[in-house]
């Protein structure tokens, strides 16, 4: 919602023929289909539990549901493609059946998992690795013609903490986005969303440096997703754990909205919707 931005920013997404307008920011609710997500209360491995969570998030105002079956927390163990799809596809199919209008994002870095989920009814691919962990990912996205969330990360979940070193974190992330987006454009990918990757190969100070300059990513003219929900960059400063970080999450989400965030990826949908409503009122009426 950054005012009077110089750069023309793409604010629509085509999700299976349904056009999503991002001129008013939207919320993406996180549903973790893993037994070891960093925030314990977000773990919904059973289909029935995931459906209940999806119902609540949609009722609270989520536009997107982001399903992940591979834990990307620092140091997480690797799992097979078969285990990931086994966790993921039954939930995709159940949500498509129960909530046919829901827009489903798939949090995976594996092209084969992403393709299976899209064929099962999902709409968006959310790749924490920016195509770096699967050489087939960009071509798969182009062939499927679905929106792609391009996130910045170095290494993989096991190694990323050791790689959190930068001379200038903002410009390194920006250069990464420019390079990757050019590759995606060349392949014919139409809808790309940028995610700076808060907490992925980044210390808290790197996250705050990126948040401080967030509006400068608008020079690429692409929608911007911010995912700071209950992350260490919050509770490392305030104390406590992820379970105590809702208020801090809302504070950072509000700052992100004033700096041009178009999608908030969160565990707590209701509070994110409230932040959007209040910052929207300030932007439009004051």
Please give a handful of descriptors for the protein shown:
alpha/beta; 15% strand; 286 residues; two-stranded antiparallel ribbon
Helix and strand layout, with pairings?
Elements (H helix, E strand, L loop, with lengths): L11 E4 L2 E4 L4 E7 L14 H14 L3 E5 L12 H18 L4 E5 L3 H9 L4 E4 L9 H8 L3 E4 L17 H19 L4 E4 L8 H9 L12 E2 L5 H7 L7 H13 L4 E4 L2 H17 L1
Parallel strand pairs: 3-4, 3-10, 4-5, 5-6, 6-7, 7-8, 9-10
Antiparallel strand pairs: 1-2
Helix pairs in contact: 1-2, 2-3, 3-4, 6-7, 8-9
Describe this structure in words.
With about 290 residues, the protein is an alpha/beta fold. The chain has helices at about 45-60, 80-100, 110-120, 135-145, 170-185, 205-210, 230-240, 245-260, 270-285, and strands at about 10-15, 20, 25-30, 65-70, 105, 125, 150, 190-195, 225, 265. The chain has an eight-stranded parallel sheet. It has a two-stranded antiparallel ribbon with strand order 1-2. Strand 7 (about 150), helix 5 (about 170-185) and strand 8 (about 190-195) form a beta-alpha-beta unit. The longest helix is centred in the middle third of the chain and has 19 residues, at about 170-185. The radius of gyration is 17 Å and the shape is globular. The two termini are about 15 Å apart. About 50% of the residues are buried.
